[in-house]
C-alpha cells in the first residue's frame, strides 16, 4: 500500500514562507534606517548653532515643524493605498528628518552619555518585546485594544496637565506611557506578522507598502518609548 508523505515538498508554501521572511526583514530594515536618519538629523542640527537658533529662536518655525510632522504622518497613514511605494518611502524619510529636527532639542537638555545609554536601554526593551510579539502563540488583539484606549486617555491627561501643571501627574503619565509602549511593541509586532502572513502572497508594491507601514508603526513605538525612558533615566545638564 502506498503511503502519503506528509513532509512532501510544497513549492507554493516554501515561496510564501520566503516572501513573508523577506517582508519581515524589510520591516526592521526600514525601521532601523528611519531611526538612523532621525538620530543623525538630530545630532547634526544640535551641532549647528545657527540651525538651533533658527528653530528655537522662532516659535513659529518650531511649531511649523511639528505641524509638518503631523501632516506627513496623516498623509502617509491615510493615503498610503493611493501612493506609490516610492512616494510612501519618501514621505517616511521626510517624517524621519522632520522628527530629527524637532528632537535635536534633547541634546540641549540631557547629557549625551545619558542619551546614548537610554537609547541602548530602549533598544534592548524594544527588541525583547518585539520577540515576544513575534513568537507568542497568545492572541494579543484584546490587549492591544486596551492599550490603545489607555494611550488615548493618557494623551488627554497630558493635555489636561498643561493647565494643571501637576508634577506628580506628569510623572505618573510618563511611567504609564512606558508600560503602554512596551505593550504596544509586542502587540504591533504580532499584528504586522499576522497581516503580512495573510496578505504577503508576493513581493509586489502592495505588500511592500504593508511592510513599510509596519516599520512606520514600530518606528513610532520605539521613538515614543525612548522619549519616555529618557525623561526617567536621562541626566539633565
UniProtKB/TrEMBL annotation:
The keyword Transmembrane applies. It is found in: Membrane. Pfam families: Bax1-I (PF01027). GO terms for cellular component: plasma membrane. The chain crosses the membrane at residues 30-54, 60-78, 90-109, 115-134, 146-165, 171-189. Keywords: Membrane, Transmembrane, Transmembrane helix. It comes from the Bacteria. The keyword Lyase does not apply. InterPro entries: Bax_inhibitor_1-related. It is a multi-pass membrane protein. PANTHER family: BAX INHIBITOR-RELATED (PTHR23291), PROTEIN LIFEGUARD 4 (PTHR23291:SF50). Belongs to the BI1 family. This is Inner membrane protein YbhL. It comes from Paraprevotella clara YIT 11840. The lineage of its organism: Bacteria, Pseudomonadati, Bacteroidota, Bacteroidia, Bacteroidales.
Amino acid at each position: 500500500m502506498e503511503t502519503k508523505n506528509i513532509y512532501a515538498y510544497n513549492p507554493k508554501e516554501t515561496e510564501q514562507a520566503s516572501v513573508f521572511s523577506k517582508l519581515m526583514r524589510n520591516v526592521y530594515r526600514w525601521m532601523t534606517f528611519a531611526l538612523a536618519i532621525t538620530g543623525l538629523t538630530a545630532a547634526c542640527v544640535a551641532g549647528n548653532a545657527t540651525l538651533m537658533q533658527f528653530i528655537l529662536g522662532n516659535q513659529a518655525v518650531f511649531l511649523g515643524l511639528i505641524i509638518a510632522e503631523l501632516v506627513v504622518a496623516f498623509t502617509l497613514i491615510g493615503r498610503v493605498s493611493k501612493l506609490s511605494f516610492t512616494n510612501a518611502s519618501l514621505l517616511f524619510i521626510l517624517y524621519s528628518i522632520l522628527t530629527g529636527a524637532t528632537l535635536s532639542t534633547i541634546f540641549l537638555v540631557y547629557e549625551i552619555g545619558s542619551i546614548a545609554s537610554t537609547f541602548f536601554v530602549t533598544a534592548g526593551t524594544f527588541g525583547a518585546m518585539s520577540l515576544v510579539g513575534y513568537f507568542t502563540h497568545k492572541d494579543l488583539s484584546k490587549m492591544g485594544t486596551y492599550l490603545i484606549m489607555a494611550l488615548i486617555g493618557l494623551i488627554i491627561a497630558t493635555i489636561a496637565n498643561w493647565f494643571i501643571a501637576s508634577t506628580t501627574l506628569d510623572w505618573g503619565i510618563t511611567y504609564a506611557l512606558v508600560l503602554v509602549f512596551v505593550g504596544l511593541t509586542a502587540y504591533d509586532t504580532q499584528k504586522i506578522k499576522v497581516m503580512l502572513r495573510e496578505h504577503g502572497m508576493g513581493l509586489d508594491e502592495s505588500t511592500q507598502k504593508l511592510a513599510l507601514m509596519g516599520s512606520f508603526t514600530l518606528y513610532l513605538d520605539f521613538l515614543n518609548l525612548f522619549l519616555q525612558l529618557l525623561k526617567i533615566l536621562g541626566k539633565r545638564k
